[in-house]
Structure formats: structure tokens, C-alpha cells
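Format notes (please read before filing issues)

Several people have asked whether sequences and C-alpha cells are stored in separate files. They are not. Every record keeps both together, in the order shown below: the sequence lines, then the C-alpha cell lines. Line labels are part of the format and must not be stripped during preprocessing.
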Amino acid sequence: MDERLKANLDAWNLMTGYHAASPEYRLAEFKAGENVLKPIELREVGDVRGKSLLHMQCHFGLDTMSWARMGANVTGVDFSDEAIALARSISAECKIPARFLHSNIYDAPNVLHEQFDIVFTSYGALCWLPDINRWAEIAASFVKPGGFFYIAEFHPLILMSDNRRGMTKLENEISYFHTAMRVDPPGPDYSDHTKIVSESHEWMYRLGDIVSALAATGLRIEYLHEFAECIYQHFPFMKQGSDGMWHIEGDPIPTIFSIKATKP
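Then the structure lines:
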């Protein structure tokens, strides 16, 4: 395995335990019957009853199983063996029918040989991928004719600014056009700052890179939406609004984007 991806795998295996225990992931609430999907994807993906759905980079599967609770026939894929083991355990404990496969997303076509009505991915997935064009090709290959690919993801503009504790405003540290791999040294986990995550490697893609990669596969881009609201307090100076989402005062930049792309 690529040493960069091996380091990321080690980090995500470690983070699986941190995230399962973190209130931010709401595992206890999920086990009590709540769904953990966010308003953006619930509104935009729509009715999934009776549809087949593939969740790429599913982590330990709470979003995947939330779609199952809404009536979808779900499959989740993730490269973390710890995350997939936990997803299978939760699925069995909660009696939620779901299939979880352990695979690096680039190797997924070797373990999964079918297509789906919906291919879904979300929030914090793209920065772990060294090849956005191959990712798009694989995502498109899993979409049935007449089906669609959907992503809700953090906007690349927010990746330009540091979000360490104590920050009081946006301070761009890198250019929007900076796409070189970035090495993150060991540091606090984003969901629990008392836990330390090992070194990891990340890639930044411009919005145009993502749209172009998907369009090149033959998928038809239905829309690109941008949102000022964020699903969590990404920056310490964000304030929670009446909508339950987090905002930078004045909403100066988008924090999330979504894309829906259909296969003819």
C-alpha cells in the first residue's frame, strides 16, 4: 500500500474509537433510534425508499444505516478495518439491514461488481484522496443508468484558513490554488481535542477540479449548490443559528457545497 495511504489508514483506525465515543457523532442517540443525516442531504437526496444506495467512504456507517432506516437498500465501503468492524457490529445490534465492505475506494471495483440507484458520499471525504479523477471514474461506474451520484462536502474555501482554537476570524494561510499534498503532524482529533491523532496526508481540490472530474466521466451535472451554513463548528468563532447550523458572522464564504450528477 502507498505509504501515505497507510499512514492515513493508521490514523483512521485510531480515530474510529475516538469518534464512537465522541458526542459529536451521536452514536448513543443513533442506537436509541435517531437518524444522524443532516438537513442538506435529506432535502436534496429525497425519498430513498426501495432504492439501492452505495455509501463511499462510509466511516463506521451511521449515515449509511440512517439511509437504511429511511427505506434504502444500503452498502457501505470504507478503507478502515476498524470502522467496518464497528459498522457491522452496530448494524447487528440495532437490527438494521446493511452490507459493509472493507476496501480502499480505489480498489472497490475489485470487491463490488454491481451498480446502484444512488451513490452517496459526504463531509470530509475528498481530502483523503490522492487522485480525484480516478475517484470520479469509480463513483460513476457504480451508478445505474437513470441513477445519480450525490456529494455534500466541505467547501475548499474553508480549507484555506486555520481553524485552531483561539482563532477569531478567517485568516487564509494557503492559496485557493494550492493543491500539493499536505502533511498534518500528530495533533488533536477534530471531534475530541483531548485525543491525539497520528500523522496524516491530505489533498486539497478546487471546486472546478471536482466538477470537471465528475463531468469527464459522462455523468450529467444537475446542480452545484453552495451553502453558508456548516454542519459543525469548524471555526471556533462560528455561532450556531436558529436553524441548528453553524455560521460565520455575515456568512462571507460558502462552507459546504453539494453536487448531484445523473447517469443518462
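For reference, the curators noted about this record: The chain has one domain: 3-262. The radius of gyration is 18 Å.
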